[in-house]
Each structure stands twice: as structure tokens, then as C-alpha cells.
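Hi P.,

Sorry for the delay on this. The queue was packed all week, but I finally got your sequence through. Input first:
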Amino acid sequence: MLFQNQIAAVLVVALGTLCATQMAAADHHAKSGTFEFVQALNTDYTVVEQSGQTITAGSLKGSVTITKSSGGPFEEGSSQTQVAVIYIKKSAAGIDLIADGIQTDADGDKRFVNGRRSAGDIAVGGGGRGTQEMIGGTGKYEGITGNCEYTVVYLPENRIVTTGTCEWQRN
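Then the structure:
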């Protein structure tokens, strides 16, 4: 009887593991959801003064961590690296910022993003609110699109922190 109880216990554990794995796999194929994130990035900018405007271009490198998620491929607590190219024009009329980036997770899957901002500043202590569009990706992010609202804060030593909330869908 003891041997049968041991076999039954092993089967219960195996079945539970199989169900959990299938649920996690199904969750990666969810059709829509929401998540919140925080980014910590380093900037490397070149600045050109020209005809009453300042043009800034360069790169952003760092990480993004999902802090809250409704599920899908955006697992709460997961992190990704981020590399982006950024272009900013600032004049008396305001700021026009565009950043195109790639976020890569631990599995090597990539998510493509495009950020835009027309408010605020890029000086230390500055920042502002903007939008980020998700424009697809590879692996678990293939076919995913969506929009995020974010707030960025510029810190000393060429660092920025961004927090945001996103809604996504899989096409």
C-alpha cells in the first residue's frame, strides 16, 4: 500500500507541473492585456546648436522591468535590456523627441518600441510625459502592438528613469 501511495504522490506532482507549464505557455499566447514598467537608462548624447534650436542625438542603454502585469508575455518581475536611438529638437516652440528602441528579454525575444514626447525637457531635473508605441517583435512578442504612457525624469551623470503603463494586443 505504501508503494501505491508513493506512486500516487509522484503522479499528482507530475500532473500539477504539467498543468502549470501548459497554463504558463497559454498565458504567453494571450490576446491582450496591460502592464506597468520602470526603466533605468544611461544616455550618450551629442548636441548641436543651430539656427535658434538645439539638436540632440544619441543612444539610450539600460534595462526595463515589468512591475505589474495582467499576464501574457509580460511577466511581472521580468526584466529586459534596452537599446534605443534618440533624436531631439528643442526650440522656442518646445521639444520634439523621437526614440526607436529594441528591448530584449532573457530568452532572446525582442520587442520593438517607438517613443515620442513633445513636453518637458532633457536637462537634469527635467523630464516630462510622452507616449510609446509597441510595433511588434520576435518570439513571444511577435504580432504584439500597443500603446504606453510614460513619465521620464533626467538625473545627474547621464541617467534617466522612466515609469509607464501600457495596453497591448496580439494581432
